[in-house]
Write a structure and sequence with these properties.
GO terms for molecular function: nucleic acid binding. The protein has one domain (about 5-120): Trna Endonuclease, Chain: A, domain 1 (3-Layer(aba) Sandwich). By secondary structure, the protein is an alpha+beta fold. Strand 2 and strand 3 form a beta hairpin. It starts with a helix and ends in a 6-residue tail after the last strand. The chain contains two helices and five strands. It has a five-stranded mixed sheet with strand order 1-2-3-4-5.
Amino acid sequence: MADHNDLGKTAEDLAATHLQENGYTILVRNFRFQKAEIDIIAEKDHLIIIVEVKARSTDVFMLPQEAVTKTKIKRLVSAADHFMEEFNKDQEVRFDIISVLTDREKNLTIEHITDAFEAFDAN
């Protein structure tokens, strides 16, 4: 597996652990709908939390969370709508980003950005 794939898998595992340690219940990982994939769907405080995990080995060009484009947001919103309908969920939805960055010594830094964007931001 390529290094960037390893980093992505590690970042998703780290994000899931971070969420669980902070009182979130993981409902689904890697939920797919059409061209979209939601990395983690969690629940906390009666909210459904859609989590996009972004990992980078450097922040020279951009921060990991800056890689969440309008197109990505539209796909996440569409997939979240499908999840809510498919599983008959009637809760409010929040969109978070968990950013994982490595340094030269391969130390990982995690940043959890809650309420990172809203569904109407994608328009």
